């Protein structure tokens, strides 16, 4: 029962953030080894997550593409 109330509170929090126009922006440069964890944690808190790949040359974009719930991705070709 407690897990259910936690999930309801989390959904309410996510909806409130969206209603207020609040989002999470994650800038990244070659963080393929850690970006999945960071994005997944952010998505637990906020539905609108943007990742700005600033000239990434590693596997960061591939990792983001494999996530079950995908953030919005802004790709800047050159750092």
Radius of gyration over all CA atoms, rounded: 14 Å
The computed structural class is alpha/beta
Kindly report the spatial arrangement of strands forming the biggest sheet: 1-2-3
Largest pleated sheet: 3 strands, parallel
What characteristic shape results from the CA principal axes? elongated
Give the mean pLDDT. Answer: 93
Number of strands: 3
Proportion of residues in β-strands: 15-25%
Tally of DSSP helical segments: 3
Q: What is the N-to-C order of secondary-structure elements (H for helix, E for strand)?
A: HEHEHE
Helix content: 40-55%
Distance between the termini: 48 Å
Low-confidence stretches: none
Explain what this protein looks like in three dimensions:
Helix content is 44%, strand content 20%. It is an alpha/beta fold and 79 residues long. The chain has helices at 2-19, 35-45, 60-65; strands at residues 24-28, 49-54, 72-76.
